[in-house]
Amino acid sequence: MAAFEKIETGILALDRLLDGVRIGDNVVWQVSEVADYARLARIFGERAIADGRKLIYIRFAPHDELFAPRDGLEIVTLDPSRGFEGFTGEVHRIIERSGKEAFYVFDCLSVLQEAWSADLMMGNFFMVTCPFLFELDTVAWFCILRHRHSFEAIARVRETTQILLDLWHDDGCLYIHPIKVWKRYSSTMFFPHRLCLERPDESIAVTDGVSVSRFYEIAGRMDEPGESRNLDSWELFFMEARKAAGDTSLAKKMAERIIGGEDRMLALVARTCSAQDLLAVKDRMIGSGKIGGKAAGMVVARRIVLERLPELADRLEPHDSFYLGTDVFYAYIVHNKLWKLRVRQREPEGYFALAPALREGILEGSFPHDIRERFTRMLEYYGQAPIIARSSSLLEDSFGNAFAGKYESVFCANAGTPEDRLASLEDAVRRVYASAMDPSALAYRKKRGLHGQDEQMAILVQRVSGSLYGDFFMPAVSGVGYSRNAWRWHPDIDPRAGMVRLVIGLGTRAVDRTASDYPRLVSLDRPDLDPSGSGADRAEHCQRSVDGIDLAERAFATKDIEAIVPIIPSWLASLLVERDGNAERSLAERGIFREITIGTCGGALLERSRFADATLLADLGAMLRALEDEYESPVDVEFTINWASPGDWRINLLQCRPLQTPKEDEKTAATRNRGENFSAIPDERIFLRLSNCVMGPELHARVDVIILIDPEAYYELPYRDKPTVARAIGALNARYRERDLTVMFLAPGRVGTTSPELGIPVSFSEIDGFTILGEIAWSKAGYNPELSFGSHFFQDLVETGMYYAAIPEVAELVRTGENAGDTVWNPALLSSVPDLAPSLLAEYPLPPGLIVCCENPGLVFVSDVVRLSCVCARMQ
């Protein structure tokens, strides 16, 4: 049947008024009562069935059903509480399955804005569904309740539909007032028309003065009066909430709307935040929906600290963040006509394959006018203070899923003209949205069974905490903190005391592994136990570069520590840096006399408040303990510290999330107590034994696969080919990831570095299926294992339960036959096991023996958390 062909609705007067309803038309009725719509929809449905049409009734609302079951009618019942994406996706699957020229009647769409808490998503549903119906030559009827929606939502409907009609009733008569009739016109079409139900084949255009007055009297009487007119359920709820802000039960209801449905986080927010706290969040939201896990963690952590530690109130920097609601993310997808691609990408066959195309579409999109206006107002508030757009997805930072480092955070210098600043912010938001399609994020969601869940992206916009030094803007110190030091580096450390990782400048160097820098790692109960040692070791494991924002260049920038010291106050420099005496003496011996400065944050650790008998470490420790108590779980936080003068600091708490801790699974438990004393195994049966250079969960498991990269072969490999090794490891990871195997991966230097000369430049998604990770030291090549406590890489290790081992220079001792003490490293034990790497990695042009992959090597791995040791040995 040709598109635009007229069909009969069963209401002859309506067909005449509209010059026919046509194939492809979406017909939307604005009504005061659903019963008015139901009368006409039933007539339309009866005629469709009589004409042999395929009629589908989409049932989802609590109002009376429009149709009872009968022959010739398919009734599909859906649940809008599944959320916008789940509900819309199911409707689209029904439409696709039903094919061309099907007829549809939908329940009242106004129910959707109540289920989804806001109008924006109801309008988005219509914007993506109406064109799909049009493409398939269908006819579909919808209704919405008059004056229950915002002007923006009605505009979305009006712009998208082919026919929009107002429907009124009075004394057995209906009034039909066409608002939009696409590609049809008559001299009386857009007048109100009176339709008597007793004579449905006749209608009268309301054109005379008396009749017109009568119609508008009816319309005025049935209008929604007062301040709630044209407000959706989102705005109505918060308007009423302000009037009853003292009602303690309101906090939970508000949390359900703006925080999300994860039970433990929802209960935590409702327990710690008042209605006024959550109203303050709503007032700083752009759009509707949820603020996401990262923003929720920041809000609730601040409330906990202020409530439980009032003495820290003067030392806690207040926040002035804004929140882009999750609905803005979907609105952006719909506005840029990416919804079909989004739906296809969510299917199993498109999950990875279509992600690059969707990412590219997101990066090239534009924002709706109303959102750009809100962006402008936010930027006017911040002035020229640097800001950061941070991901805050629904699943992020929740109990069980941290998503550490999976999504982007983008700094904006926020300098230049208003137009420049707006363009920079829009680009930052696009980049955060697009990061939802990054391979590591997709792999993370799939591995944790989250790929079928809605992962809406909210964004937390924060003013960058810091000070301006010349043209360089940075916080004095940034850091990450853990309330539990589960992977301690010395037996005297109490894991319950927690630890922090400190850097000078922006926190990027506290959460990312860098090529040459080492942040200061501190156990809060024993700050004297520096894992980097002292003297020459501390100079080797120090910070030499600082990240900040160069306002002159309007960009994120990195400067040498020696360029920073001259532009900061001398008293602040004394807290952050120290001179490297060994390096200065070495230069002096060659006749070179100059100061060498390294970043250690040593003075900051000992800094005492000038107003109270407090230290910075005491403040951080108290905060972590209070947060862990209230979360009823270990936590990790991100923070900055700035000083106004010696002893006068402010801590800015930027983020808090439950610390993901490893748990023993059934497979591991089943391998216990096999009857062998692993402490008495002879050396010739030991593949690996280590003490005091291991960290991770208690583990007792049969090793199913060993993957080993030979340090010398990797060192000799040309630099340009080293990334190929990382891709090959990713291929092996993909092979074993879904098979629930215990995989040991051993590689030279730093795994996950961005510098191939220092180790293997894999992303975590390329090793996330491995159980045990060993980094092999070899000084000849400069391979130096470095776990980077507090980094996203470290968090990934902890969250996945991956065991970590640093294999010291024993590798060289093995080669020379010297005594390695308590450490055993015997890779020759694999020589009797077939190497599968040549066949599994045939497509990768790598030298033979560089990567060894052995399945079923006959080894068992046992760790001892108390003694900080492990052994991997051949079974009897």
Can you describe what's shown?
- It is a single chain.
- The N and C termini lie far apart (76 Å).
- The strands form eight sheets. This protein has a nine-stranded mixed β-sheet, with helices on both faces. The chain has a nine-stranded mixed β-sheet with strand order 29-35-34-31-30-37-38-28-36. The chain has a five-stranded mixed β-sheet with strand order 12-13-16-14-15.
- The protein is built from 31 helices and 38 strands.
- With 876 residues, the protein is α/β, with parallel strands linked by helices.
- 35% of the residues lie in helices and 23% in strands.
- Helix 3 runs parallel beside helix 5, helix 12 crosses helix 25 and helix 15 runs antiparallel to helix 17.
Task: List its salient traits.
nine-stranded mixed beta sheet, 876 residues
The main sheet comes to: 9 strands, mixed
Q: What class would the helix/strand composition place it in?
A: alpha/beta
**Shape designation:** globular
The average pLDDT score comes to: 85
Instruction: Please tell me how large the radius of gyration is.
Output: 32 Å
Residue windows where pLDDT falls under 50 for at least 5 positions: 662-676, 815-819
What's the number of extended β-strand segments? 38
Helix content: 25-40%
Instruction: Determine the N-to-C terminus distance.
Output: 76 Å
List the total number of helices.
31
Strand content: 15-25%
- The largest sheet has its strands arranged as 5-4-6-7-3-8-9-10-11
